[in-house]
Amino acid sequence: MLNPKLKLNPKMFNQDVEQAPIRKGFGIGLLKVGEEDENVVALCADLVESTQMYLFAEKFPKRFIEMGVAEQNLATVASGMASMGKIPFCSSYAMFSPGRNWEQIRTTIAYNDRKVVVVGSHAGISVGPDGGTHQALEDIALMRVIPNMDVVSPCDSIEAKKATLVLAKTKKPAYLRLAREKTPIITTEETPYKIGKAEIYWMPDVGLAQVGIIATGSLTYKALLAAKELEAIGIKTKVMNLSSISPIDKEAIIALAKESKAIVTVEEHQINGGMGSAIAEVLVQNYPVPIEFIGVENLFGQSGTSDELIKYYHMDVSDIILAVEKVLKRKTS
Amino acid sequence: MTFLSDEKIKEFKIKANEIRTSIILMLLEAKSGHTAGSLGMADIFTLFYFHILKHDPKNPSWEERDRVVLSNGHICPVLYAAMAYSGYFPIEELKTLRKLGSRLQGHPHREYLPFLENSSGPLGSGLSQAAGMALADKIDGKDSDRYIYCFMSDGELDEGNSWEGVMFAGKNKLNNLIAVVDKNNIQIDGNTEKVMPLEPIVDKWRAFNWYVIEVNGHDFKDLDEAVKEAHEVFNKPIVIIAHTIPGKGIKEFEGDYKWHGMPPNKEQAENALKELQDLAFKIKNA
């Protein structure tokens, strides 16, 4: 069942579930933080519509900075503005920022300790027809390896809005990962949100979970659908939304492993180095259990619709169910 | 800024000589580091830290201070020496360059030395940071309170990020941004014109809507006039292309690209220190 304490969207499993792009929540959130704090500035590399920064740009033209197609400059100008007390949000497609400007983000933002929020939109394979060049499947790995960098990957539009509001107030540099396509709304305005805190969205009605599913980003919804189907065939699971990849909620991850003794991770990213790897790092040092990883298996993407690609690269509900069944068989006790 | 008297210029020459002496001692002690650019920029850093900059070493976080962004972080020995001589930290501390736990990292890091405006080393990103600072001041209407100075090298103009920053500053007419390019014609692999031609460098900056001033980077009067001229520009960012001699002050090092990233050994350092000592004597008795 859905965790009753978290006030999740009660209609999320309905046919007509409300859908919105995760990036949309960022655009709305940015407008709000712009209203609340005049030090907030927005920088964009020629993608003001796509990244949803247009809402901010229209309301605060003097605080919106059009960078042109220059992502290295995007990160470094943002760093300079932060050093004068501004709170810059800089956005592009994740493939280009942090894809192209990683060193500038590392040195001039993280190492330099300048509070900048790097916003990577259109992340993951679900960006679809644009093809492999535009499908950022490495950005979580790139960003979570940098010290002094928070990495946040919201599960829906509402959580993206909350993350934006929170990231405007934290002291550390951060990476906010967003997706292009419309995906179902999982949370509500009342669902608690805290950076560094993972929440259990799905749990067994009674008894302990046999498998813990840890998901991040838009695939969290698919993980929940899988959990519901698994419940129908008598397999008890818990689903954790790990939207905060750095800092990572070790305590909650270890607790879930202790309860379930088996984990499946779900992300729209390379398996190598992604969120699943972060989970493995935590568990192998603290409470080793079998883990199955849902993600892209060391491949580049290609053109196709979002749904086709999720299926083709084995990140669909049926793949999560198979992974759960597989990890169950690997349990020693 | 006031008019530079001969007496003042003599004072700067002596100070620059002390800074060069410290650079040699630091590099000898560290056994690694960048000699040519550090020595070549000693006159410019002397003039800025002792004459041009609005700053207060006893109150380094003074809000209205000019901002100094060093883009080519590898010449930090000259930055550290200029900062120490102007009172930011004890001159004694210069000996700790590149040692474990030192505030004086091999490339500057502001977490360790908080008086720095930026950490740097990877080339080509300082100008954009400086442009971001200048734009923030424009937005806040603070652009007449202070200047943003960016010290950078000619070699780092190979970097695409440099030109992204040049284009951006031109677009935004950042006349509170003054870049000083150390045009010393060398980089690690050889002469800049051989490694990756930069000429016509003046035309390039002009084409990107900058106001360009060329000067002799070892002539205090020239440099001072250039900065004064820069302060009068009202609708463009300004670049001072300072022609310098890499390794300036030590005949054995001057103009030779091999000294870009090499420290002197004991014998070379002793000769260099002797040469600087002789020069100091000449300046004082001129």
UniProtKB/TrEMBL annotation, chain A:
<dbReference type="InterPro" id="IPR051157">
    <property type="entry name" value="PDH/Transketolase"/>
</dbReference>
<dbReference type="InterPro" id="IPR005475">
    <property type="entry name" value="Transketolase-like_Pyr-bd"/>
</dbReference>
<dbReference type="Pfam" id="PF02779">
    <property type="entry name" value="Transket_pyr"/>
</dbReference>
<dbReference type="InterPro" id="IPR009014">
    <property type="entry name" value="Transketo_C/PFOR_II"/>
</dbReference>
<keyword id="KW-0786">Thiamine pyrophosphate</keyword>
<dbReference type="Pfam" id="PF02780">
    <property type="entry name" value="Transketolase_C"/>
</dbReference>
<protein>
    <submittedName>
        <fullName>Transketolase, central region</fullName>
    </submittedName>
</protein>
<dbReference type="InterPro" id="IPR033248">
    <property type="entry name" value="Transketolase_C"/>
</dbReference>
<comment type="similarity">
    <text>Belongs to the transketolase family.</text>
</comment>
<feature type="domain" description="Transketolase-like pyrimidine-binding">
    <location>
        <begin position="20"/>
        <end position="185"/>
    </location>
</feature>
<dbReference type="InterPro" id="IPR029061">
    <property type="entry name" value="THDP-binding"/>
</dbReference>
Automatic annotation (TrEMBL), chain B:
<dbReference type="InterPro" id="IPR029061">
    <property type="entry name" value="THDP-binding"/>
</dbReference>
<feature type="domain" description="Transketolase N-terminal">
    <location>
        <begin position="16"/>
        <end position="271"/>
    </location>
</feature>
<protein>
    <submittedName>
        <fullName>Transketolase domain protein</fullName>
    </submittedName>
</protein>
<dbReference type="InterPro" id="IPR005474">
    <property type="entry name" value="Transketolase_N"/>
</dbReference>
<comment type="similarity">
    <text>Belongs to the transketolase family.</text>
</comment>
<dbReference type="Pfam" id="PF00456">
    <property type="entry name" value="Transketolase_N"/>
</dbReference>
<keyword id="KW-0786">Thiamine pyrophosphate</keyword>
